[in-house]
Amino acid sequence: MHHVVSATTNPAKIQAILRAFEEIFGEGSCHIDAIGVESGVPEQPFGSEETRAGARNRVVNAKAARPEADFWVAIEAGIDEGATFSWVVIESREQRGESRSATLPLPAIILEKVRAGEALGPVMSQYTGIDEIGRKEGAIGVFTAGALTRSSVYHQAVVLALSPFHNAVYG
């Protein structure tokens, strides 16, 4: 059984990680150990590079906290070019896989508040009245009428980031 450390305690992210690992490695093939670690970037990262740096930093910090694990996984959500997205970084002792998720364009009224210094989650909670929305369906669930959720979009990116771990061609 794979010991997978999730560098987050966010249920939407943990669900995506568990589902992706079980799809790739088989049901019951892994145990998720969820821990909270620092990203080393602002609570609301801007731009692809800052967001990816946050995910990479979380993996480094998760490895330091749980060095005995088989995999360390981080999902960092950010804002880039008026849209929300995330970077997924997965590492084993030998390899790294990274993938950027799909993006959701954000309405101007939401972007204004985020650009003024508020994080997207709290802004969306104010807008919707849904407490801790970032731990639930997220802005993605709201603006896609539930067709997609934060977890479903993360899930796809985790599956993509896992590609190097089960395809020999990646080397």
TrEMBL record:
EC number: 3.6.1.73
Lineage top rank: taxon: Bacteria
Residues that hold Mg(2+) according to the record: 38, 68
KW Metal-binding (keyword) present: yes
GO molecular function per UniProt: ITPase activity; metal ion binding; nucleotide binding
TM segment ranges: none
The UniProt record lists the keyword Manganese: yes
Domain Non-canonical purine NTP phosphatase/PRRC1 residue range list: 7-165
Catalytic activity reported: ITP + H2O = IDP + phosphate + H(+); XTP + H2O = XDP + phosphate + H(+)
Entry keywords, A to Z: Hydrolase, Magnesium, Manganese, Metal-binding, Nucleotide metabolism, Nucleotide-binding
Binding site for substrate: 8-13, 68-69
EC class name: hydrolase
Pfam families per UniProt: NTPase_I-T
Gene Ontology BP term (one): nucleotide metabolic process
InterPro entries for the chain: ITPase-like_fam (IPR029001), Non_canon_purine_NTPase (IPR002786), NTPase/PRRC1 (IPR026533), YjjX_NTPase (IPR050299)
Obligatory cofactor(s): Mg(2+); Mn(2+)
Free-text cofactor note: Binds 1 divalent metal cation per subunit; can use either Mg(2+) or Mn(2+).
Residues forming coiled coils: none
NCBIfam families: inosine/xanthosine triphosphatase, PRK05074.1
Family: Belongs to the YjjX NTPase family.
Function: Phosphatase that hydrolyzes non-canonical purine nucleotides such as XTP and ITP to their respective diphosphate derivatives. Probably excludes non-canonical purines from DNA/RNA precursor pool, thus preventing their incorporation into DNA/RNA and avoiding chromosomal lesions.
Quaternary structure annotation from Swiss-Prot or TrEMBL: Homodimer.
Protein name: Inosine/xanthosine triphosphatase
Organism: Lelliottia wanjuensis
